[in-house]
Amino acid sequence: MTSKTILLVGAPMDCGKARQGCLMGPDAYRTARIAGALSDLGHQVRDLGNVTPDDNDLPDREGVVALPRTVGWTTALSRAAQDAIAQGVPIFMGGDHALSLGTVHGVTAHAAAEGRPQFVLWLDAHSDFHTLETTGSGNLHGTPLAYATGQSGFDGFPPVPNPVPLENVCILGLRSVDVPERAAIEATPMRRHDMRDIDENGIKTCLAPFLDTVARAGGALHVSLDVDFLDPSIAPAVGTTVPGGATVREAHLVMEMLHDSDLMTSLDLVELNPMLDERGRTAQLMVDLAASGFGRTVFDRPTPRIL
User: Looking at the annotation, which residues are catalytic?
Assistant: First the structure.
């Protein structure tokens, strides 16, 4: 296995929705020994600490939760992402999913500078394809994929000079999409696989063609892993639980396939709310999944004998 330089970037962003708790996510990952899990695999790991949001003079917007602060996080995280990805493979430890407004913006700018097409794998129960104009809740953690692909309706946010082409996006694990969002998605060439598709065809069959496309294009691949991709029975520490999610083995297979492909250039770990966890088990599972994405196999973790 080739050793990589992995940069840990904390993003204690907690303004993308009304329910609080995700700001503790980065420290929960550190406590669950994410750096050690990755360095044990032979990688060089550096923790760059936590990003802080930029100040701005934007006014609040009625019907939208914390718009000025979310924009401040977006600009700061875009810079942090561009700096980190120039040094290795960044892991952005969140924080709610609105952090991807900034992380995808930044890594896509880097890919454009290198002349590489950007691809995005969205592991999530939700499609996050709302805009400021269409969101019913006002929670901006439901908007990053629309922003990253250059959809209109993001007044106040930085321009998106390098939108991710819609055909370069794959959403895996869908099971909670409202009617307007569904109509918008169906009008695009994005690949999307709901849990029925996964149940009927298997998660490998859903993911493998997308990875083949990324490989043929020589693309950069950003992976955004939301805790609610997982079934809440195994990952309770998320404020947007939706029954019927991915199993432990399905999720590990996704990450193992990403490692085998050697395509992943950046990773988000989002929506971990330690206030809702049970003795840290969700944080530990997310760390284990990250380790699978960087080469851990079952043979690296012998099962302890129970006497």
Answer: 97, 124, 126, 128, 141, 226, 228, 271
